[in-house]
From TrEMBL, chain A:
Coiled coil location: none
Keywords: Cell membrane, Membrane, Phosphotransferase system, Sugar transport, Transmembrane, Transmembrane helix, Transport
Location of the protein in the cell: Cell membrane
Bilayer-spanning residue ranges: 109-130, 142-162, 183-208, 228-245, 252-271
Membrane topology: Multi-pass membrane protein
Protein name: PTS system mannose/fructose/sorbose family transporter subunit IID
GO annotation, biological process: phosphoenolpyruvate-dependent sugar phosphotransferase system
Example of a GO cellular component annotation carried by this entry: plasma membrane
Taxonomic lineage from the root: Bacteria, Bacillati, Actinomycetota, Coriobacteriia, Coriobacteriales
Record organism: Parafannyhessea umbonata
Pfam (any one): EIID-AGA
PANTHER family found in the cross-reference section: N-ACETYLGALACTOSAMINE PERMEASE II COMPONENT-RELATED (PTHR32502), N-ACETYLGALACTOSAMINE PERMEASE IID COMPONENT-RELATED (PTHR32502:SF5)
TrEMBL record, chain B:
Keywords assigned: Cell membrane, Membrane, Phosphotransferase system, Sugar transport, Transmembrane, Transmembrane helix, Transport
Principal place of residence: membrane
Protein name: PTS sugar transporter subunit IIC
Organism lineage string: Bacteria, Bacillati, Actinomycetota, Coriobacteriia, Coriobacteriales
Its membrane topology: Multi-pass membrane protein
Transmembrane domains' residue ranges: 34-63, 75-92, 98-117, 138-163, 183-201, 208-237
PANTHER family: N-ACETYLGALACTOSAMINE PERMEASE II COMPONENT-RELATED, N-ACETYLGALACTOSAMINE PERMEASE IIC COMPONENT 1
Pfam families reported for this sequence: EII-Sor
Assigned GO CC terms: plasma membrane
Species this protein is from: Parafannyhessea umbonata
Family matches, as PROSITE patterns: PTS_EIIC_TYPE_4
InterPro entries: GatZ_KbaZ_carbometab, PTS_IIC_man
Single GO BP term: phosphoenolpyruvate-dependent sugar phosphotransferase system
Location of the protein in the cell: Cell membrane
Domain of life: Bacteria
Length: 272, 262
């Protein structure tokens, strides 16, 4: 009579299929919605996993209550890493693991995983993609934005892969993720820093006016810098701002304000 | 040039979609590169959209919402830089400087929403305790869509409704001011890059920064892809040595344990 299987609390009924995991990956595109400072990503994080959880536990209200409640605790990580963690959580739910354990894994991993996700997606993929797209777009070629959109479609849907990865790692993942995190963060840091080094001369433009010379001589100020090292001014400016952030803890808005004032001053003096 | 009402309304739609994407971070359509491209299409000047997108993307490269923070808004910056370049006839760099107040306005709106929305999880806790999935999901989607539509509306106001006063204001600038903003626009990518370096630059990664810098300064390259390949190769070399080093260290500790036992 009953179309849905019923069960008593705490007993997983069904295993998830490959397409359920794929669906989790697609669902998790909205992992960050209803973001607030209090619980951050918890609402979207919880919502994405409900269909999979319902498949495992059928109609059991008791289990769903527990599941939704512990997942509504604070959550904040890089969205792709969230998908991976969601895969792990569902794998553990499917095995009927103790929810205290699952909760521990969830709460213990999202912080460290945010570190690795940010270093891959924000500090490596974004500078490289933006670097390539901007070099195409500077001359007005629509290839720039199209390449950018194309790469990020792949990056977005790579969540499907992360969901499968997380599910297959399951609860074994805890130690593995720890070591992999260390190596991958190191590697992503090297790649990201190399690319940022190349973006400095390509995109920061600062040079003195050609007519600005020393005294009555004919040596222009800019030629002195160029002979020293081409693009030394962009490099120096980046390091100066880096130092202001790092050592002086000046906030972004103040730094941008100073850059704008500096530009106005240089223009008024006719130096740049 | 003037924006028509239709263009204003289309910007409202694009703004809403891109803002929704900014909240999910799904496809990065909130990045200036994409938002400015769409704006260029709407204004019938794709080339302007693309060039403004490139300039703005670089300036906002380091403005990330890492760790749940809200930076000056890259979406508003992307759209408004194109709109301002179009309506005032200024260069992309100058328009970038002019768009900054709008990025700050949107940052304020973002912080306001994320603070006010702190009431949402409490309501959601209640639904969770009742296993009420239907209400849970509609509240989650509802607040997100509301924020997206609200921001789309603000974009409509900034671009369409305010264009005449902004145009008059900008046209009253003497040349040294507009040129000064252009100079600042050229330097602003340094802020974005310095912010990226805050996370990636460590004593052990300094050499890689200079490798990339020297390559881009002295080699003629169409884009940064060659540098990315060199960077990936260096990362792979480092990874292999690091792994071998850790294995040897582990073996050395094992040996040490045996000899201590004598």
């Amino acid at each position: 009579m009953a179309s849905n299987p019923t069960n008593k609390k705490g007993e997983p009924l069904q295993k998830l299929s490959k397409s359920d995991i794929t669906r989790l990956g697609i669902n998790s595109l909205t992992e960050q919605i209803a973001f607030s400072f209090e619980r951050m990503q918890a609402p979207g994080w919880t919502m994405n996993m409900i269909p999979g959880f319902k498949k495992i536990y059928g109609d059991s209200k008791e289990d769903l209550k527990e599941f939704m409640t512990y997942n509504m605790e604070f959550m904040n990580t890089e969205p792709h890493m969230a998908t991976l963690l969601q895969g792990m959580v569902l794998a553990m739910e499917e095995k009927g693991a103790d929810r205290k354990l699952i909760q521990g894994v969830r709460n213990g991993l999202f912080g460290p995983m945010a570190g690795i996700g940010d270093s891959i997606f924000w500090f490596t993929v974004l500078p490289i993609t933006a670097g390539i797209a901007c070099s195409l777009a500077k001359s007005g070629s629509i290839l720039g934005p199209l390449v950018f959109i194309g790469i990020y479609l792949v990056v977005g849907f790579s969540r499907i892969w992360f969901a499968h990865l997380g599910y297959s790692l399951g609860s074994k993942a805890v130690e593995k993720v720890g070591t992999a995190t260390r190596y991958l963060t190191g590697a992503a840091g090297i790649l990201g820093t190399t690319v940022i080094g190349a973006l400095i001369p390509s995109y920061v433009s600062i040079a003195f006016q050609k007519k600005l010379v020393f005294g009555v001589g004919s040596t222009t100020v800019q030629s002195v810098f160029d002979q020293l090292l081409p693009n030394v001014l962009p490099l120096a400016v980046v390091f100066l701002i880096y130092w202001l952030f790092k050592k002086k803890h000046v906030n972004t808005i103040a730094v941008i304000g100073c850059v704008i004032l500096f530009g106005l001053l240089m223009s008024l003096l006719n130096w740049m | 040039m003037q924006l028509t009402l239709v263009q204003g309304l289309l910007l409202f739609i694009v703004g809403t979609i891109c803002q929704f994407d900014q909240q999910t971070e799904a496809f990065y359509w909130f990045r200036p590169m994409v938002a400015a491209f769409f704006t260029g299409i709407i204004l019938g000047n794709v080339e302007l959209g693309v060039t403004c997108g490139a300039v703005t993307e670089l300036a906002y490269l380091g403005m990330t919402n890492v760790g749940g923070t809200v930076p000056p808004d890259p979406l508003f910056a992307g759209i408004m830089t194109v709109v301002l370049a179009y309506t005032t006839g200024q260069s992309a760099e100058t328009a970038l400087g002019l768009s900054y107040p709008f990025a700050l306005l949107a940052q304020g709106i973002g912080i306001l929403f994320k603070t006010v929305y702190s009431f949402v999880p409490h309501k959601l806790d209640k639904y969770a305790a009742e296993a009420d999935v239907r209400h849970f999901n509609s509240l989650v989607w509802g607040v997100t869509i509301f924020e997206a539509v609200f921001c789309g509306f603000i974009i409509f106001l900034c671009s369409y409704a305010l264009q005449a006063p902004i145009q008059a204001f900008v046209n009253s600038f003497p040349t040294w001011v507009t040129h000064g903003l252009e100079v600042a626009g050229g330097i602003l990518p340094a802020v974005g890059l310095a912010m990226l370096l805050l996370t990636t630059l460590k004593p052990e990664t300094y050499p890689y920064l200079f490798i990339g810098f020297v390559m881009a300064t002295f080699l003629k390259m169409p884009n940064v892809l060659p540098v990315a390949i060199i960077g990936a190769s260096l990362a792979a070399i480092d990874y292999m040595y690091q792994k071998r080093f850790d294995e040897q260290k582990a073996e050395a500790i094992d040996d040490g344990g045996d000899s201590d036992g004598i």
